[in-house]
Fold this sequence. Notes:
By secondary structure, this protein is of the alpha+beta class. The chain has helices at residues 5-41, 44-54, 389-392, 420-469; strands at residues 58-61, 66-69, 74-81, 88-92, 97-101, 104-105, 112-117, 121-126, 135-141, 147-161, 170-173, 178-181, 184-187, 191-196, 208-209, 213-216, 225-232, 239-254, 259-262, 268-277, 281-286, 289-291, 297-303, 308-315, 324-332, 335-345, 360-363, 368-371, 378-380, 402-403, 409-410. One of its GO terms (cellular component) is neuron projection.
Amino acid sequence: MARTPYQANMDFFQCTTLALIFVALLLNGLHASTAAQGDEDDPAEETNSYILDKDLPKFGEPIQNLTVPVGREAVLTCVINNLQTYKVAWLRVDTQTILTIQTHVITKNHRMTIAHVEGRAWVLRIRDVKESDKGWYMCQVNTDPMRNQIGYLNVVVPPNILDYPTSTDMVVREGSNVTLKCAASGSPTPSIMWRRESNEPISAGATSLNSSTFSISRVNRLHMGAYLCIASNGIPPSVSKRVMLIVHFPPMIWIQDQLVGAALGQRLTLECQSEAYPRSINYWMKNDTIITQGKHFEPSIKEINSYKVVMKLTIKDIDIGDFGTYKCVVKNSLGETDGSIKVYHIPSTTVLATSPPATTTVATTTEAVHRKNYKNKIHRQPVDDLSASSNKILGAGESSELWNIDGSIDKDRDHRYRDNAASFNEDQREKEAFVDNEASSRAGQPHRATVAVLLIFICYTLVASSLARR
């Protein structure tokens, strides 16, 4: 059977393909055999490769990590041995920015410079370090493959108190709730402490509070003052901000003695204490008339602190028209109040001296009277000569100073203030006793005169009889 041309062509193609596959396998076997023989017969190639690796640049020491305060200079050093003709570059890792190549500065940051020191050290300097300079830096040599090492620059920032949300000066009404806030930036993150500028306790007996917020429930006038927010993170300097807490409240008055007795001619001082904020207007009144500075009256005001005032009124020489009710008036924008002090008259007291010779001091609520049996003369301290201590007799619980006959002060006795009405009755009884005593003394004088005349007459009779007998 005869073969067709198509079958003849297919047979030729199959034979050619088999021949090519055979040739490829043969060549592959020859190449493998040659490579194995080369490895066994020529070890110098491996030695040459080791020598080339040994001659490549190597880093002499690691890059030291740095911690630099903001505003200072940072210095990063890369030491390379056997650099040969290779190039050195500094890069910023996080941004993949090329900073320098060899001694050329590539970045547009004018704060960076590069220096080649002692032939093997490449020194990168960053002046006026900013917080944004913090991060990883790479020193790279352009070998194949690239060789590099990295170092970290840590930038620390002193604390800074932020204007917001930190509290500013606050004005509140008494009884309301208050929260003071303080916020600060810095690296590391600052810690915040509150304390009072006056070092008074700020909370539950503590003089400080470690918190960014400080709350006061039902604020009162004792909370008023300056508070300090202090931020610190170990990087000097620490910083603080002063926040004034101002508490507004209407006036209040305290009066120690609302009933005061005085004698004519005495110098007397009345006193009121008041508290108010905003600052108050203070004045004295009598019979709905404001008392002003003059020869007879001397009003004065003493500020104890920002809200407390002591107001005094001195009456220099009391006369009959000065007795009555005085008012101390206090007012501010939130209200007005007043307090009353009644001044009443206390009569002077006189006591007669008795025998045997002795010195006796009798104290009243307004003056001291002294007696001594020397020719039946009464020694009495005048009202005008009394010291200021006579006023103290009017105060609750205060001691008085009593004058002896020689003018010295007797401080051994402690005269305490008693009810004025009771004291007045006692004075009246003393005056009645004095009158009775004086009357008895005067009644006895005629009897003593009669006895004396009788004795003289008897003596005269006896003398006359004796002469007659002679």
